[in-house]
Specification:
The complex is a heterodimer of chains A (about 350) and B (about 625). Chain A is of the alpha/beta class and about 350 residues long. Chain A folds into two domains: about 20-245 and about 280-325, Rossmann fold, CATH 3.40.50; about 245-280, no CATH class. Chain A contains eleven helices and 14 strands. In chain A, helix 6 (about 190-205) links the parallel strand 7 and strand 8. The longest helix of chain A has 16 residues, at about 315-330. Mean pLDDT of chain A is about 95; it is low at about 1-15. With about 625 residues, chain B is an alpha/beta fold. Chain B folds into three domains: about 15-230, Pyruvate-ferredoxin Oxidoreductase, domain 3 (3-Layer(aba) Sandwich), CATH 3.40.920; about 245-430, Rossmann fold (3-Layer(aba) Sandwich), CATH 3.40.50; about 515-615, Rossmann fold (3-Layer(aba) Sandwich). A seven-stranded mixed beta sheet of chain B has the order 1-8-7-6-3-5-4, with helices on both faces. A seven-stranded mixed beta sheet of chain B has the order 12-11-13-14-16-15-22, with helices on both faces. A five-stranded mixed beta sheet of chain B has the order 19-21-20-23-24, sandwiched between helices. In chain B, helix 11 runs parallel beside helix 12. Chain B is globular and about 85 Å long. The model of chain B is unreliable at about 1-10 (pLDDT under 50). Classes of the chains: A alpha/beta (about 350), B alpha/beta (about 625). Chains A and B meet through strand 4, helix 2, helix 4, helix 10 and helix 11 of A and helix 1, strand 10, helix 9, helix 11 and helix 12 of B. Strand 4 of chain A pairs parallel with strand 18 (about 470-475) of chain B, so a sheet runs across the interface. Bound molecules: iron/sulfur cluster. Iron/sulfur cluster binds near residues 33 and 216 of chain A.
């Protein structure tokens, strides 16, 4: 029952309560810097949660290390703040042990792509039903301002006073390469978009990956400003909608056309370009090639795509494991310890 | 060709001589099937009532060049009509299938021992690969042994003349030919192996027939040609009545953990990354999915422990297994399990190190790594099985302690235990400890770090339980509430509390037994796989009237409560270890005992004779 004493039927037949955003808040003081983009992400996740109709005891938030990884402490669900980069491994264990739980992974660019790159890749390729949100602020915040694997080449910061000489990695490219079945991007400053995408992620079954552009106002302020600011966003970002042509701009007159395997920005109505020439977005394409091309589009050459790049279904790791267990029980019978202990060549000594 | 150097007139019926104990080693190229030969001889010996103990010796390379020294694979087995505890110091018999096998193993063969060689392989090319300048069969260098020169390959091919199998496959049956010879020499029945061949190759009748033919041909050759003038009988050992099976340490470990999971009433989750010599545990566990066992072959060692901890958090029995280098990678994960006070068992099948070291060889040098190998004050329980079969009981103990105290526990096995085998009296389920785990379900008064008064364990509250939503993690926690706390007083308190909790396991572990008199001149204190050699050495000396006893630690953190007292009852304490004195360091530090550390790090177990000599110095 909720605070008002009303009991209602939950989504999966449980006598559940209608939860509110407040039910997902904890009494812990939120310790991010004032103005940090993390607040917005927390707010949207707390907003989406009650709408999912899942009792909160069935939800687990698992994080690694970094500013973003404080997240579980602020969610009134089960939570596990683990070690740097390894959250997907812990989450895999939780989900495999109890597939009935909804398991979220909260991570950052350093956590997921640097120290935890390996686990990130393998959790995705196994298609474990995990909801991974990567807070990408392109900097190390918690350790106070070193460059991260997504920092732009040449960026000056604490550990690279003359500018970085590391080429950055693209988180989406990695996710596609790792066979993720759900890949999306959103940003902290657009709560509406963010909550829609979080909701999509929550409902996807399989390894889901959401990159959120998150502003670190202390160490990397304005990292996404050039295209996320209200005045320019329509011209510099492009929304992805399944089955719709990839058009953008205030007047919806520009779009993305494929020239061979190279995307190009074209203006509809100019040089004979019509709407029919514009690439139509398909989230469900079996191969991620086109989504990969979109995922690599960057400002200023291209508008930055926002939304769901890929959403396909395939059996999950935990389902297949459960399937093997039932198959083994079917063929061999449920485990009989007496039989196991007495297996192999045995003999009696009298 | 088939010549024996034993100069006795040919008799119509060879004599049978009784022997108490025989150590035999089969050695050949890795492709020669020596492991199969050894395990078959072992199984048959067990079935006819001998006590047995074995030690396989694998090459580190999977496919070293044929005929080369690194490609030699061996299997040693000790069988006896009395109680034995080791695979034997020096083989009495060596079967060498090629020059490389001879070269690698001949130094271990006892003086005057029986040497059977496959002369077909002693050709120039093979001799060169083994580094022989001259043929050792002809230069007199083997005159100190009773040598039997047999063209095993040609004899096998001759026996399989009628087989339609390709040449290469027929040739590969020579190990069964050699096994047949040895069965005759040591008066063993062929039936168990015939039955095994039938079961194993039933689907390929050609292969089954060829192996059967080779085995019988070998046996009959020995019987009819009288190359061996004597054959030997090793009688039944007086073994405790009961039902037995042969078991390797790694099998016993896997089965032990499955049993523990049944006793605890929780499914087993095994997170592991392939590594020698622990992989067999992963293989074995993955066969038993019908027990609800979930095996997870992780992308690396860190993920393996991470997933195991995650599964534990969610209410499974989390288990991770590896060898020393893997433990190094898991250290941070172990720290998190200590901090979050979750029951987790970490298996370390130790091998020679440091670094990649000697992957296929045994060592006991991870004790201090298990004890201290993490940042800060990070105590864990440690148990160590003493024999291959004892892996079963200690696996259950590891789980019992971990779940009761909500703390990680190390299970320190080693390559020698893992691959070695011995007969195991099959345990009955009803004789096993009661250890069903209970989760917290009552929301009223729940706090994640509230403690049991006796064990200091915090409640195990698993996701999915309504009303118990809580957060745990690696940051220091306030006692009782489990909230993140940077308070200096709380940290000091929690560091001591975590240590105290492990220490309290002492109330739940058995006291240390002394083998021999409870007082005396010398106590030999051991741990882990040295049990067999130490006990045999002490037994031999005691039979000669020496004042020596032994005690073997199966619980290393905490130590049994009476250890201090036991140490005080002897004038000298000797601690033999396959490392540079790690237990000795702990014992000296804790009990201020001037223990004698006796160490060896050759990738091989102690020989009984080495221990006897060392102990004698102090008698
Ligand atoms: S350092 Fe940056 S990312 Fe971290 S809390 Fe502060 S603003 Fe947010």
């Amino acid at each position: 029952m909720n605070e008002n004493g009303q009991a209602i039927e939950g989504a999966n037949g449980h006598a559940a309560v209608k939860l509110t955003r407040k039910d997902f808040q904890t009494d812990q003081e939120v310790r991010w810097c004032p103005g940090c983009g993390d607040y917005s992400i927390l707010a949207q996740v707390q907003k989406v949660m009650p709408e999912l109709g899942i009792p909160k005891e069935k939800i687990v938030f698992i994080s690694g290390i970094g500013c973003s990884s404080r997240f579980p402490y602020y969610m009134n669900t089960y939570g596990f703040h683990t070690i740097h980069g390894r959250a997907p491994a812990f989450a895999t264990g939780v989900k495999v042990a109890n597939p009935d739980l909804q398991v979220w992974v909260i991570t950052g660019d350093g956590d997921a792509l640097s120290i935890g790159g390996n686990h990130f890749i393998h959790a995705l390729r196994r298609n474990v039903d995990l909801k991974i949100i990567l807070f990408n602020n392109r900097i190390y915040g918690l350790t106070k301002g070193q460059y991260s694997p997504t920092s732009e080449l040449g960026k000056k910061n604490k550990s690279a006073p003359m500018g970085t000489i590391d080429y950055p990695i693209n988180p989406l490219s990695m996710a596609f390469a790792a066979e993720a079945t759900f890949v999306a991007r959103s940003l902290d400053v657009d709560p509406k978009h963010l909550s829609t995408i979080v909701d999509r992620l929550a409902k996807h079954k399989g390894s889901g990956f959401l990159e959120v552009y998150q502003n670190c106002n202390i160490f990397n302020d304005g990292a996404f400003k050039l295209y996320s600011d209200r005045e320019v966003k329509e011209d510099r970002m492009i929304p992805l909608e399944h089955g719709k042509p990839l058009v953008f701009g205030k007047n919806k007159d520009r779009g993305i056309r494929l020239n061979g395997v190279t995307p190009e920005v074209v203006t509809i109505g100019e040089n004979g370009v019509t709407l029919d020439d514009i690439l139509v977005h398909n989230e469900h394409a079996p191969e991620p090639n086109l989504s990969y091309i979109l995922g690599r589009m960057q400002y200023p050459e291209f508008p930055v795509p926002m939304g769901v790049f890929r959403a396909v279904e395939r059996p999950t790791y935990e389902e297949m494991l459960a399937g093997q267990i039932s198959a083994a029980i079917q063929t061999k019978g449920a485990g009989d310890l007496e039989k196991l202990l007495n297996s192999g060549e045995t003999w009696f000594i009298n | 060709m088939a010549v024996t150097t034993v100069e006795e007139p040919i008799m119509t019926k060879p004599q049978i001589e009784d022997l108490e104990t025989v150590t035999i080693r089969f050695a050949g190229d890795s492709g020669d099937g020596m492991q199969v030969t050894g395990t078959q001889f072992t199984a048959t010996s067990a079935i006819i009532g001998n006590d047995i103990s074995t030690l396989p010796d694998f090459p580190a390379e999977i496919r070293a060049p044929a005929g080369s020294l690194p490609g030699v694979s061996g299997y040693q087995l000790n069988f006896s009509s009395r109680d034995i505890r080791t695979p034997g110091d020096e083989p009495n018999v060596l079967v060498a299938m090629n020059p490389a096998a001879l070269k690698v193993n001949i130094k271990d063969l006892e003086a005057g021992g029986i040497l059977v060689v496959n002369t077909d392989e002693f050709v120039e090319n093979n001799l060169k690969k083994a580094g022989y300048a001259a043929n050792p069969l002809e230069d007199g260098s083997l005159s100190g042994f009773r040598i039997f020169r047999l063209p095993l390959t040609s004899l096998t091919l001759k026996a399989l003349e009628d087989s339609s199998m390709p040449f290469k496959q027929r040739e590969r049956c020579k190990n069964f030919y050699a096994l047949g010879l040895m069965y005759w020499l040591y008066d063993r029945p062929m039936e168990p192996t015939l039955k095994w061949i039938e079961e194993k190759f039933g689907a390929k009748p050609e292969v089954a027939e060829a192996n059967v033919a080779a085995l019988k041909a070998g046996y009959n050759y020995a019987d009819t040609t009288e190359i061996f003038t004597v054959h030997y009988h090793v009688g039944r050992a007086t073994i405790k009545p009961g039902k037995y099976r042969n078991i390797t340490g790694n099998e016993a470990t896997a089965i032990g953990f499955i049993t523990a999971s049944q006793l605890a009433g929780r499914p087993l989750f095994y997170g592991s990354y392939p590594i020698t010599p622990a992989s067999d545990i992963l293989h074995e566990l993955s066969k038993h999915k019908n027990f609800g066992v979930k095996t997870f072959q992780a992308e690396d060692e860190i993920s393996a422990i991470g997933a195991a901890i995650g599964a534990t958090f969610a209410g499974h029995l989390g288990l991770t297994g590896t060898s020393g280098p893997g433990i190094a990678l898991k250290s941070e994960g172990i720290g998190l399990a200590v901090m979050t006070e979750l029951p987790l068992v970490i298996i370390d099948v130790q091998r020679g190190g440091p670094s990649t070291g000697l992957p296929t060889k045994t060592e006991q040098a991870d004790l201090l790594q298990a004890m201290f190998g993490r940042n800060s004050e990070c105590p864990v329980g440690i148990v160590a099985p003493s024999t291959p079969a004892n892996c079963f009981s200690m696996a259950i103990e590891a789980v019992r302690l971990a779940t009761k105290y909500m703390a990680p526990v190390f299970f320190l096995s080693d390559g020698y235990l893992g691959n070695g085998s011995e007969p195991w009296e099959i345990q009955r389920f009803e004789d096993l400890p009661e250890m069903r785990v209970k989760f917290r379900t009552e929301p009223e008064g729940f706090l994640p770090y509230l403690r049991d008064e006796k064990t200091l364990a915090r409640p195990w509250a698993i996701p999915g339980t309504p009303g118990l939503e809580h957060r745990i993690g690696g940051l220091e926690k306030q006692n009782i509430t489990g909230n993140v706390s940077y308070d200096p007083e709380n940290h000091d308190f929690m560091v001591r509390l975590r240590a105290e909790k492990i220490q309290r396991m002492q109330q739940d572990i058995p006291e240390l037994d002394v083998f021999g008199a409870p007082h005396g001149r010398v106590l030999v204190l051991g741990w882990g796989s040295t049990y067999g050699a130490i006990t045999t050495a002490v037994e031999q000396l005691r039979e000669k009237g020496c004042s020596v006893s032994s005690a073997h630690l199966r619980y290393l953190n905490p130590f049994p409560k009476n250890l201090g007292y036991v140490l005080e009852c002897f004038e000298t304490v000797i601690i033999p270890e396959l490392n540079l004195g790690q237990l000795a360091l702990l014992v000296r530090a804790k009990f201020l005992v001037d223990a004698v550390s006796f160490t060896k790090v050759k990738g091989k177990p102690f020989k009984v004779a080495e221990l006897v000599d060392k102990i004698r110095e102090y008698l």
